[in-house]
What does this fold into?
Amino acid sequence: MVLPKSLQPAAVDGVQFAADKAYQQLRDAILDGDIAPNRRLVEEDLAAQLEVSRTPVREALLRLAQEGLVARVRGWVVRDHSPEEALRIVEARAAVESAAARLAADHITAADLDQLAGIADAIDRPGATVKDLNRLNRQFHGLITAACGNPLLIQFAQRTNISHWSLSATWLMSAKDAAEVNAEHRQMIDALRARDGAAVEALVRAHIGRTQSILIQAV
It folds into this structure.
């Protein structure tokens, strides 16, 4: 049976919505460490778990492969990262996110700034797990990057995300580390409120440089 043309766009939109949802759920699970590096990803199993068909799952996996989070090696697998590869990723992240932050100083809204402050408050709350801190940190930096208004920078920034489990051998964040990291977050918020692009660019580069320095020592 051929559907009326008036219904076809809605069908396509439905598939795209399912693919976007599958992509975001899988991406979060990988970056949070819920799906560990080297884990096999079976399309049929993922489709059942996410309650979608295989088509959106396959599209989600292809998008994740473009970001370097999964690879096709006799089937799909979550990519692991050597210290050397992780270092290259963090170097690229420092360059991309600092440039995006400079642009964000001109475009960020009051609502965005309030949201950043809310995330910083959540990081400071007692009882946060490593997974909580990892996700909040990702949300914080993602919001600044999204505010830059440059789709290419946003796309490049997505490709420099890496699961915290890929860094766990060299860096286990302590409560003191989290407090210091969040103090830097609040400095970024202040610079963004002041519309000081040069200052927030330098802060972001130095902030990401902390991870870079740890990886250099490991390598």
Observations:
- The first strand starts at residue 40 and ends at 41.
- The chain has a mean pLDDT of 84.
- The first helix runs from residue 8 to 32.
- The two ends are 60 Å apart (CA to CA).
